[in-house]
Amino acid sequence: IKGRNLVDGLPKNVTIHADEVREALADSVMIVVDAIKDTLEKTPPELAADIIDRGIMLTGGGALLRGLDKLVAQETGIPVHVAERPLDCVVEGTGKSLEVELPKNRYRGRRK
């Protein structure tokens, strides 16, 4: 890894191993897994049936973490898929939401 030493401000190269990265990410990964499980527990039955049939779709940069899909599948018992282009999903979803006209009363009180 290349970066700047925060003590002296000079450029520095440091070698780290995959195990160190995995350990550093472990708590954050489990927060994501727990959030998925909490969301599934709060999902209405009719929607939960679709999720069980079709599986969970991981999107965004976190979906690129090697093994996250297998961990989520193991923890939930539901098949997990990674989007074809996970980094583009947020942008595409935002674009689609901007195409839909929002109710005018949704943002009342924000303008003067």
Characterization of this structure:
With 112 residues, the protein is mostly helical. It has a single domain, classed as Nucleotidyltransferase, domain 5 (2-Layer Sandwich), CATH 3.30.420.40. The chain is built from four helices and four strands. The chain has helices spanning 18-42, 45-54, 68-76, 89-99; strands at 2-4, 11-13, 56-58, 80-82. Strands 1-2 form a two-stranded antiparallel ribbon. Helix 1 (18-42) packs parallel to helix 3 (68-76). The radius of gyration is 20 Å and the shape is extended.
List the helices and strands and how they pair.
Elements: E1 2-4, E2 11-13, H1 18-42, H2 45-54, E3 56-58, H3 68-76, E4 80-82, H4 89-99
Helix pairs in contact: 1-3
Subcellular location: Cytoplasm
InterPro entries: ATPase_NBD (IPR043129), MreB_MamK-like (IPR056546)
Pfam families: MreB_Mbl (PF06723)
